Amino acid sequence: MDCAEVLVNMWSSKRTGLVSVICLMSSIQTAAAADNYIGTDTLQLTPSVSIGSEYRTNLYLSQGQDFDSPTKSGAALLINPLVKLKLNGSDLNLNLAVAYSAKKYLSEELSNLDRYADARVVGGLKLFPNGKLGLILDNQFSSSGRETAPLDVSDQSSNANDDTNAYIQNINNSTHLGARFQPGSILHIDLGGEFTYQDIQDISASHSVEGDNSLNSKNATGIYWDGSWKFFPKTSVYFMGDVEWFNWEYNLVQSPTTCIIDDFCYAGIPDGRTADTVMGLTGQITDKLLLKVGGGMGSVKYDSDSVAQDLVDRTALVKPDSGESLILDQEVNDSTYNTVVSQISQNISGTDGWITELSASYYPTENQQV
After folding, report:
1. Which of 60, 75, 215, 248 is positioned for an S-S bond with 55, CB 3.0–4.6 A?
2. Does the pLDDT value for residue 272 go beyond 50?
3. Is 243 exposed, middle or buried (CB count within 10 Å of its CB: 0-12, 13-18, 19+)?
4. What are phi and psi of 157, to 5 degrees?
C-alpha cells in the first residue's frame, strides 16, 4: 500500500480520535517512451521496473499517545516490476498489464510488515474497436495488504514478528462487460454490467465466525455508463456513473471496539446500494498536458434488515476469549433480543454527497489527444 492508499484508508475509516501520519516516498523508474517496446506495431511487449523507498511515521494508523495507543514509524524498500502486453488489430484490441509489488522494511523489528504477496492484473478487450457498435470486456484483479494494529495495540513491539497481527489482506476482482456505441470519432457511449468480488482475509482484530481467519467477503452487481463528446478540437465533455447492489457474506462481525451488551462486541455490516454519476470537461492544454475538471453526486443506501436477518439466523453471540455465549432467541428472552437488534441497527443509515474531480496529467514521452 503506497502513500496515496494510506490517505484514502485514513479518510474512509471510521475511527474515534485523531490519526496522524507523515508519508514520504521516492522512486526511480525505467521510463519507457511510447515507442520503447519489444515487438511490432501490432503486438507490443513493454517491461519496466521501479525501485523506491518509503518512510511513514504511523505504520499502524493508530491514534497516538493522547489516546493511549503508541505509534510506530519505519522505512521500507519498494520494488515494483511491471509487464504490459498490447495487441492492435483491425477487429480486436487487447491490453494486459501484470504488476508485482514487494516491500521490505529496513528494521528487523518491523519484519511482520514485509510484503511479498501484492499483485495486480488488469486486462481489457475491445471487439470491433473501429465500428459503430462494439463489445468491451475489462477485468481487474488485485491482491493487496493494509497494515492493522496488533491484538494488543498498547504493546505492538511484543507482536512484531506475528504476521497475522500486521496485515489485512484484500483480494478484489472487478469485471465489466458492455457495448460501445460510436457513430463517429467525436462521440462514444458505453453501457454495460459489472460484477465485483472482494475477500478480506487475515484479520487479527475481529473475526466473522469463530475459528475463521477470514473477516468477510462481498459480491456486487450493477450497471455502468461512460462516454465522451469532443465538441471542440481540444475540448471534450465526459460523463460516467454506475449503480451497484452489494451483499456481504456475514452481516454481523466481531469487533473489539463496538460492544453491544455485556461485553459482547459485534458490529453490523449491512447490504446496500451505491450510486454515483460524474460529468465534466477535459481540455488539451498542450500536446503533452491534459486538464480535467468535473463534478457529480454519489449516494449509499443501506439495508438494516440484512443485519437483523443475520441475527435471526444466529443462535448465539460468543466471546472469543472466554467462549461465553449470549443466547439469541426472541421467544426465550425477548428483552435481550430486542436490545441487541436495536444496538446493532441504530448506526445504519444512508449517505449522500458531492463528488468533485480536478486533475492535470503530463505525459513527457508521448503526445495526447482528448
Report:
1. 75
2. yes
3. middle
4. -65, -30
